């Protein structure tokens, strides 16, 4: 459900053909989870709910049958998560050239107070004795 992909797909690269083997390492880490999310969502999904679905998927993939949830428990958990009123995350847009809020990309001039005089570095080095 998270990836929007089929469980087995021979059309994918060899390392990604078996969905469970490929995504399992990503399910336990919320930061990595975004790497496997369905790209058709365009980053717009409640991240908390996605993390909880990922945790549910991990429990379903447990090695011990007794520790895996029943389908009734899975459905109940998914319905509970569907009731969460978390707002979908809006993806950050990263541009290679950030836009300036100023016309033509120019920033306003910044004037210093006449009381704030910047000391001349070359004059200061001449005034100080050598070796100190």
Distance between the termini: 69 Å
- Give the overall shape: globular
The largest sheet, given as strand count, sense and whether it forms a barrel, is: none
Number of E-state strands: 0
Low-confidence runs: 96-102
The DSSP helix count reads 5
Radius of gyration over all CA atoms, rounded: 28 Å
Secondary-structure element sequence? HHHHH
- Decide which structural class fits the backbone: mainly alpha
Share of helix, binned: 25-40%
Overall mean pLDDT stands at: 77
Portion in beta strands: under 5%
Question: What keyword list fits this structure?
Answer:
132 residues, mainly alpha, 5 helices, globular
Could you characterize the architecture of this molecule?
The model is unreliable at 96-102 (pLDDT under 50). The chain is built from five helices and no strands. 35% of the residues lie in helices and 0% in strands. Helix 3 (47-60) runs antiparallel to helix 4. With 132 residues, it is mainly alpha-helical. The protein is globular, with a radius of gyration of 28 Å. The protein has a domain at 14-82.
């Amino acid at each position: 459900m998270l990836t929007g992909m089929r469980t087995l797909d021979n059309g994918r690269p060899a390392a990604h053909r078996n969905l469970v083997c490929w995504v399992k390492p990503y399910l336990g880490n919320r930061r990595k989870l975004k790497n496997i999310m369905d790209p058709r969502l365009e980053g717009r999904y409640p991240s908390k709910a996605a993390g909880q679905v990922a945790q549910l998927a991990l429990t379903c993939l447990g090695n011990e049958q007794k520790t895996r949830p029943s389908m009734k428990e899975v459905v109940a958990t998914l319905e509970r998560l569907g009731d969460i009123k978390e707002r979908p995350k809006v993806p950050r847009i990263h541009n290679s050239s950030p836009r300036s809020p100023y016309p033509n990309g120019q920033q306003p001039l910044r004037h210093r107070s006449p009381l704030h005089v910047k000391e001349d570095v070359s004059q200061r080095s001449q005034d100080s004795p050598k070796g100190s």
